[in-house]
Write a structure and sequence with these properties.
Elements (H helix, E strand, L loop, with lengths): L2 E3 L4 H8 L4 E3 H4 L7 E6 L5 H12 L6 E6 L11 H7 E2 L1 H4 L4 E6 L15 H14 E7 L1 H11 L4 E15 L13 E11 L2 H5 L4 E7 L3 E7 L4 E4 L9 H11 L25 H17 L18
Parallel strand pairs: 1-2, 1-4, 3-4, 3-6, 4-5, 6-7, 7-12
Antiparallel strand pairs: 8-9, 8-10, 10-11, 11-12
């Protein structure tokens, strides 16, 4: 089964050109099946790029998935066409009474600010609290993961001396954990961030389980509430040229960026980068959808339980 998206969403043409099976709303209506309902809170400025990257990863499963795209009400994006936001995106006030099998909260370019200084922090807090009772499993990415760990568990973030940019080797700490099924002992994933959370802070919180780390990039994947919350510090959804585009952008702004590590052959930015993370990136999303959403979500989403296991 494919992912179900709006007929005219720009990502449709991109995904179909890559031979990825997508299903339009029109065709999906003819199927007698309950699709998984996933809400994507897209906090990235280039929303069309990010939604396409994540939809690509979600498409690689035999499940039918229905996506709602969510934007913040308290902060309006200036890098995405207004008509795209009006056509395809909803706000929290429009969905707060709905229930979802899964939620994805993306990263955002606000790392250097304290969490409480972010314009939409109160709204994000409300959404993160809502996910505990209205979403079966929530996947947090990069800054979204740091924000979730801070809000739910008090885990601080720290500013790095230089940007963590590149594709790094990671270790699987628990190969029997469903999220890590099929992973090699060592695998690659991109990182692009100015801040970090630390292993010792994760280990202080009994509710958190560390699933994967990198000797260079640090914490990678953390789990809580039996998989109801997943926190991923990297960007396994990144395209081949994403880190290259970020490097060129920052160089153009005279920010003197470091060359992304282990990304260009011989760390030479004049050469074409190689993709070394795509298979494991798709596998992580597939495992999340299968083991943490599809296999355990109630058929009737109104029967979701809260963080204490009590039915709402």
């Amino acid at each position: 089964m494919p992912i179900k998206i709006a007929n005219s969403l720009p990502a449709r043409a991109v995904l179909e050109s890559e031979n990825i099976f997508v299903m339009t709303e029109t065709r999906a209506m003819s199927q007698d099946i309950r699709p998984l309902r996933i809400v994507l809170l897209n906090l990235m400025p280039l929303k069309i790029v990010t939604e396409t990257q994540i939809l690509r990863c979600l498409s690689n499963t035999p499940l039918q998935i229905e996506i709602d795209l969510l934007q913040t009400e308290t902060y309006k994006s200036t890098h995405t066409p207004e008509d795209h936001l009006l056509t395809f995106y909803k706000t929290f006030s429009e969905i707060r009474d709905q229930h979802y099998d899964g939620c994805i909260i993306t990263g955002a370019p606000v790392e250097m600010l304290d969490f409480e200084q972010v314009d939409y922090w109160p709204e994000l807090v409300e959404i993160m609290e809502w996910t505990k009772t209205h979403v079966h499993s929530t996947l947090h990415i990069c800054w979204g993961a740091q924000a979730g760990l801070y809000y739910h568990y008090g885990v601080p973030k720290y500013i790095l001396p230089q940007k963590m940019s590149g594709v790094f080797e990671h270790r699987v700490l628990d190969p029997k954990e469903p999220l890590m099924r099929g992973f090699n002992d060592l695998f690659m994933s991109p990182h692009s961030r100015h801040t970090e959370v630390r292993v010792e802070d994760i280990q202080k919180v009994p509710a958190l389980r560390l699933l994967s780390v990198s000797d260079e990039a640090g914490v990678y994947i953390v789990e809580a509430r039996g998989g109801r919350q997943i926190f991923v510090m990297g960007h396994s959804e990144y395209d081949k040229d994403t880190l290259k585009s970020e490097y060129i952008r920052d160089k153009g702004k005279n920010m003197n960026p470091i060359v992304p590590r282990h990304y260009f052959p011989n760390d030479d930015p004049t050469q074409e980068p190689r993709v070394t993370w795509r298979a494991h990136g798709h596998l992580m999303y597939t495992n999340w959808l299968n083991y943490y959403v599809y296999q355990t979500t109630p058929y009737d989403l109104t029967k979701l339980t809260n963080s204490n296991g009590d039915r709402e």
